[in-house]
Amino acid sequence: MAGSFVTDVVVVVLVLGLMIFIHELGHFLAAKFFGVRVLVFSLGFGKRLLHWTRGDTDYRISALPFGGYVKMAGDDPSAERKGDPGEFLTKPRWQRFVIVAMGPAMNVLLAVLLLTGLYRFHFQKPAYEEQPARVGDVEPDSPASQSGVKPGDLVVRLGSLQDPRWEDLQMKVLTTVGEAMPLEIERDGRTLNMSLTPRPEGPDRVGDAGIYPYEPGVIDKVEPGLPASQAALLPGDEITSVEGRKVLYWPRVAYLIQSSKGKPVQLSILRGAREFQVKLTPVLTDVMGEKRWRIGISFHNDMLVRKLAWGTAFAAAFQDNLRDCLATFDVLGKILTRRLSPRSLAGPIGIAQLSGEAYRAGIPELLMLVSFISLQLGIFNLLPIPVMDGGVILLLLVEGLIRHDLSLKVKERFLQVGFLFLLLLVVFLMCNDIMRTLRPY
pTM here? Predict the structure, then answer.
């Protein structure tokens, strides 16, 4: 437990450190390009721990790692201006706009480049995510079941999605709670029109419809000495039904076997073109310290694993980041209009837990998480919140429209509101993370 906590902390500090460095590097490079003197380039806030000076710039690592900043000459509107051409506020507004926007832009660029490099050498995802959205299973009493969706149905439209893949359908359901969406399916050559209203589920209160993808129960391995082996089942056999219930989603087999409580179950097996029946009696075995009823099989989990050409990898990375970006704004809009719970947001503790889990899962998973967090950091910094980059951009746009600088008093009030908002947001996110940890369901 303690080791896991330490790992989470170390990983999140390294992850955030990288993203903050890239973010501040964007400001730094743009400032240097336009001839602004940079006085401080700091990773972290507070007391200076390590530093070195080169030219006009003091490069430092400070005590509090969750943040960073670039201090430029003449960037304080309350200070007296000296008319130095190297001061930030002496530069034209469009140059200041570029300097401020380059921080979030670098985070977005990092997100795309990380995925591009990963996809070039290791592109992996479940095969069903890129397949048409055919339903493999439906939870009883779920929104999908109440709408009349059945296993085998092909979703041809959900809300604004036309002919969606499972990946698109999952994201749409996840980010929609309590809203009825038009649903069009194909069943046995007929087109049926329905309505689907996802309900909030889990600690994050995200949308859930109770539907699962089409993943047939093809046996991958048969364990010697257990009922499946004794019944001469073979790898490649497909379990098409359990106790007369059609199976189009292989995890349902394990659920039905557990539900039997050790009673004999009848399976329909498809081997090549021949279908036959077998009756097996599950045995109670120990699986990682837990007693479970088993027949001794594992299923083929079809994964797409390949290397992509650089151009294809970049296109896939760009498309995935664009999808996540649009989903983020969709979620933010629904949170602001109270159509989605703010519990779906994660704070520092949640990010640390996710980072540790991704690290333990492997480098590809960690890179995907770093890319996602970097994108979110870029988006968050572009929001028109005072003291954030987006707040500065907003002031520059307003000043550009009115063709003169806002008064110092207005800017100070604007910043005070921003500090208060950020403080309340941090407290809320920390409490959110703690409550999610204490009450995971």
Answer: 0.80
